[in-house]
Amino acid sequence: MPVDPDHRHAPLSRMPEWQIAAPILHHIRPILLASVLGAGVAFLLAEARPAPHPAKAELLMRVGYEYTPAPADPTRDYQQVTVRLDEAIGTELQILSSLPLIARTLKDEPHPHGPAVADLTAQDVLERLSVKRIEGSTIVALELLDERSDWAARFLDRLIANYRQERSRLYGQDAYTEMLTAQRSEAESALEAGRAELAEVTLAMIQQTAKLREGISVLASDPARQAEYRDVRAALAALQLRLADRQTTQGVVALLDRIGSDESPGLAPTTPVPPGSVVAMVDDLGRMADRISALNTVEAEVGTRVAALDDALMRQQVRELGSANVEVMTPPYVSDEVAGLSSLTKSVLWGIMVFLAASAIAVVRAGLRRPEDDEDGASIKTETEEGHSGGSTGA
Q: Angle, to 10 degrees, between the axis of helix 226-243 and the axis of helix 174-221?
């Protein structure tokens, strides 16, 4: 439909809707020229300062023993605990993106900034950092966007190292391990002390046995002391009977058997054998045998305790190793992807925005024309037509 010349320059309020594009078409050449220039300038600026490439990394989370409390009794196994995976992964994400951890990492790996980012803070880094779980997996993806992509990759690497160290501090149970170690050291000391006393009592018993053999030989060879000899043999038999059912004194029973079966006279004692002294020796042997039995029982119990603590320490070590279950699946690297829009896309968008802006300016300028300007133009046109008409009549 042709454009009505009477409405082409009419005010915007008096212009029909279908003729809004008339000012745009009237100035289409300068509008297109401005759009092309704007797109070219935007392309050159984008190429002069290219968009950065983000640094990325991926972690594999395998939650396990760190969410299981240690048993109160070290000789018992760990209790079964149901771990909710979503809550566990959410906890790890909170630790990984905590401001203190980022501030610590920023201190370890400072930004090689220029004047524009001289005051880079942990909050600034957090705003540029993306930490999210890949849906349907236990993989956590990290992404950091910065103009210095090489620094961003180094920062992520240091952040992961600090995060794993922080996990060890939070989930580690050093106090529990120290308690197990102290209990084992105490039990080991008691075991060594018992063994030392057992060796001492055993040596004393061997010496006492040698004296007993000499005393029995003296009594057996002296006709005047046969009654005492029979009392000693009876006491010795009673002691053997009392110790016969003890597994911890079988060596003592065997030693007493040899003494009881030895009828040969021994060497004359260096000291006289007072009456009743040999029976007293048998009584001393009985007390020593009781002590040896008690020490053997304690040694067995303490040995069992030490073995249980060794097993608990081993399981605790396995638990500590199982708690360090964050694996770096993809080490930090600089991605080939460009953050944001490409230079060509930016230039096209700028060209479109300049075209729209220039078109809006043309339409607004056409709408701002005053009505009296149109009336003056109309009166001039009327006078000109009348002048032509009068000249024709005179002719």
A: 150
Domain ranges of the chain: 19-50+355-371, 55-171, 177-317
Per-residue pLDDT tens for 243-301? 777 766 666 667 676 665 655 555 555 567 788 888 888 888 888 888 888 888 888 88
Give the span between the Cα atoms of 242 and 251, in whole angstroms: 14
User: What's the CA gap between 384 and 379, in Å, rounded?
Assistant: 9
The alpha carbon of residue 342 and the mean position of all alpha carbons in its chain are separated, in whole angstroms, by 38
- Token pair, residue 190, equals 């008691």
pLDDT, tens only, 168-209: 787 777 777 778 888 889 989 988 999 999 899 888 888 888
DSSP SS3 for 61: strand
**Separation between Cα atoms, residue 222 and residue 228, nearest integer Å:** 10
Please, which residues bridge with residue 333 across strands? 56
Q: How many CB atoms lie within 10 A of CB 128?
A: 14
Q: What is the pTM of this model?
A: 0.51
Q: What are the C-alpha distances in Å from 5 to residues 8, 243, 368?
A: 5, 135, 17
Give CA 204 to chain center in angstroms. 59
